[in-house]
Amino acid sequence: LDKDVKIILVGLEEYKDNTLVNNVMQLVDEFDKSSDKITTEIYEKESSEDNPYILFECGDITRKVWLNELYQYKYDSLYAQEEELYMIEPMITNSIIGIVNESTDKVYICMDKSVYGEKYYTTFVSIASTLGVDTYGLNLSGDMKIPDDCKCLVITPLVYVADDGTTTMTDFSDEERNLIVEYINNGGNILFLQESKSLIGVETPNLDYLMNMFGVSISEGIVCQDNEKEDRISYVYPNVDTNNGLIKYVNNESRICLFDSGMIELTDNEGGDIKQYPILIANANSYIRTNLSNTKQYRTEDDIDASEAVLGVYVEKKVGDNTSKAIIYSNSVIATNTPVSIKDNIRNKNVAVEAILLDDNSELIVDTIRILMDKNDAIYSVKNKYNYVPSGNILTDNIALKVMFVIPMIILIVGYVVWRHRKNKK
Prior knowledge:
alpha+beta; single chain; globular; 4-stranded mixed beta sheet
């Protein structure tokens, strides 16, 4: 550190016997002892109604982290219980890095027209906070302004809610589109969480225009996959492209699970102002189904091969002296708390798991936020997926069942044969 940092613990002292608070205070004490640039102060809460928090100060830059942001619950389908996970070290470390680097950039989600409500992004917000990034909802149609501190704008499928409560899929207005175009031209970054045109069901020329600025569009139809061990063909497990060197916490052994995903089409870049780097590529068992009235759980003659189809892409767009970055996924569910039903074959029952916490989806979101927010110096504690997050291949893999049941039976049988042989010899 080359700048003075002050860490102020407000209201934590009275809860110091709590394991979480005790761990926080121990880690802050280690930071204090390890650097003469860090000092620590402890304050009491101003009132009994106030929640404990940590305040980080470096000059005029501050960041407040509430105590309840330092942990999250992850659902374990194998044992049907929730586990409390602490994110103390990455949260504190990234907060220090952020204020020292004078980073006040934020993520804004277009919530006023989002098909998902605020509660569906609680885990997304928690992951961003762990990286030292604050996330807010944006009422674009009401404010008609994108905040100056917006480093990344999240655009999800859009919905219109009528006075009677009925909903229909919708598009940006011309004014909203123009605001986002200006934002892109000024170097703003965008995360597009989108769906197949077949699922949207309406024309969205303004949204299409924004994605076309990055040389991207999403086709009709649903990408499906022949899954030998699962009966949901709409669950697609794409290959992760590691050749671009972009990602850090996801690799070619990671398992990403998409749901009813569309296919991303990349246009030619004749002007050379756009660079595209695929992130997720459909595997060899994938095909696209445009006739959604076909509910067969296997590939039919009408289905079209979709191996090597792009399902996620990173794009850099040069606009004058500015560079705008975008990541586009053809599935919006993966970044949300939407419950997804998976089969637990060990207990022979279905369990509900948040889509963002299934398999390695959360690591993909970590890399996505890190790339778009330029948080390459941030740290992140990768979860132990075997203990905390269900993975379809763990729950349904025949090898796991053999290890648990078949091999012990073989050992018992061999042991019995050996015992009988020895007894007969006597």
